[in-house]
User: Fold this.
Amino acid sequence: MTADGRAQVAEGGASADDPAPYFVRHVFVCTNERAAGHPRGCCKEKGSIGLRDYMKAKAKAMGLSGIRVNSAGCLDRCELGPTMVIYPEGVWYRVETRQDVDEVLEAHVARGERVARLMLRPEDGP
Ligand code: FES
Assistant:
């Protein structure tokens, strides 16, 4: 039970009975939009749609297979955006430029490394 009385979900981890993952890496890019002036802001106003489009095109141009880049609704870390999360690792990034996208694709997606300077940690927050 959490401090606010909600039930805690089980920790992750693959089960032996799980089917093989359909994608090796699945990237969710928040493209949520809120009304101008909303106190939390939104990723769309920070350029996330263009970054998502660029990431999809760049992944294709790099010839990467086993990756899917999808739009996501609000990932609930709005103040830290533009946000994205990559599964199955569950690693989050704030990606603000095309150069950031290149770095995530080349390091994390293609080589299985991490981009520490862009990574969001659970303790990061507004
Ligand atoms: S608007 Fe992107 S995380 Fe909420």
